[in-house]
Design goal:
single chain, alpha+beta, T-fold, eight-stranded antiparallel β-sheet, four-stranded antiparallel β-sheet
Length: about 325
């Protein structure tokens, strides 16, 4: 789960010019409580900011829990059960991944995320009775779609797609650029990204993956990979945590849906490479919940995924697990 999408930062580190009639165009801005960076090779340098803005507006209208009039906010407040095509796409993918991960990914965890102060509405009272009451509303099995209406078995069940919406937004923008003939691009929203084709130098896009440190260091990258028509998403707890003012205890933003408690794990960060960014985004979150051993077992059963897991060893040293495909993508590693 993510609050304000402070996450592993993934940045482009390669750009330039080429001799064709395509020109590198860059669009930057703010959306979904975070930033976006989009670069693409455009014939004659035509700027497609309008198309990008239209996608971002549609996503906000459907999936933003920070917009009172959005589809998801109205559903959470029981003002309307009417969905739209974007909501249905994300809901169906969320339920699919929830089933695959045995509930490690659960889009109904919103009230508990709020309880711990990482959601769209912090709950000040951290009483155990309040927590227990909120847990009764959690469970993706409490929801179903009937035609275009969302059906709740518990009226207080709430949805939060923050752990999947950024990846979905990336995929939507990629689809729109493909429609107008843009096939060489890097689209990043809040650290989740997809790369297709070649950059301005006629090479594969190069992506730097941050080290799992609280502060960004001068030598910040744990790995640099070349991405060939794939999506990349990362998740980690080392920069997104709260400290209890009463006892000084630190608790992280990744919540275990079954217990409703922040996870305790030696798994520091997860990077997933997949065909779609919505899947990479959700699987990265699920792996952080599952922990190291369960994540490795899960990833080994899904050959379509590539992954890098960074974890702490018994002496506090950093160790890694990575798939063979991820190793082949690497042009640099610092571990």
């Amino acid at each position: 789960m993510k609050q304000l999408f402070y996450f592993l930062s993934i940045f482009i580190i390669s750009c330039g010019t080429n001799s064709s009639d395509k020109v590198l165009v860059s669009n930057y801005g703010y959306t979904q409580g975070t930033t976006y960076s989009i670069r693409y090779m455009s014939p004659k340098g035509e700027n497609h900011q309008k198309i990008i803005d239209e996608v971002l507006l549609k996503v906000d209208h459907s999936l933003s829990t920070y917009k009172e009039a959005s589809v998801i906010s109205k559903i959470n407040n029981n003002e309307s059960m009417q969905t739209d095509s974007l909501f249905i796409d994300v809901f169906e993918m969320a339920v699919k991944i929830a089933k695959e991960t045995d509930g490690a990914f659960d889009p109904t965890i919103a009230p508990i995320v709020n309880f711990w102060g990482f959601g769209f509405e912090e709950i000040q009272n951290k009483d155990e009775k309040v927590h227990a009451a909120l847990m009764e509303t959690v469970g993706y099995e409490n929801l179903s779609l009937k035609d275009c209406l969302l059906v709740k078995t518990h009226p207080k069940t709430q949805l939060d797609f923050n752990a999947i919406a950024q990846g979905y937004t990336v995929d939507l923008i990629a689809q729109e650029l493909q429609k107008i003939g843009i096939h060489d691009y890097m689209i990043e929203v809040g650290g989740e990204l997809i790369c297709n084709g070649l950059n301005a130098e006629g090479q594969l896009w190069r992506i730097g993956i941050d080290k799992p440190t609280e502060k960004i260091e001068e030598k910040r990258f744990q790995a640099i990979i070349e991405v060939d028509n794939k999506a990349v998403a990362s998740s980690g707890n080392y920069r997104n945590f709260n400290v209890d003012e009463k006892n000084g205890e630190k608790y992280v933003h990744t919540i275990q849906p079954k217990s409703g408690k922040p996870i305790q794990s030696n798994l520091l960060s997860v990077t997933i490479v997949s065909e779609s960014c919505i899947e990479a985004d959700a699987y990265a979150t699920a792996c952080m919940v599952m922990g190291l051993e369960e994540s490795i077992t899960f990833i080994d059963k899904k050959p379509e995924l590539e992954a890098l897991l960074i974890y702490s060893g018994p002496k506090g040293q950093w160790l890694k697990y990575q798939t063979e495909g991820f190793t082949e993508m690497c042009i640099y590693q610092d571990l």
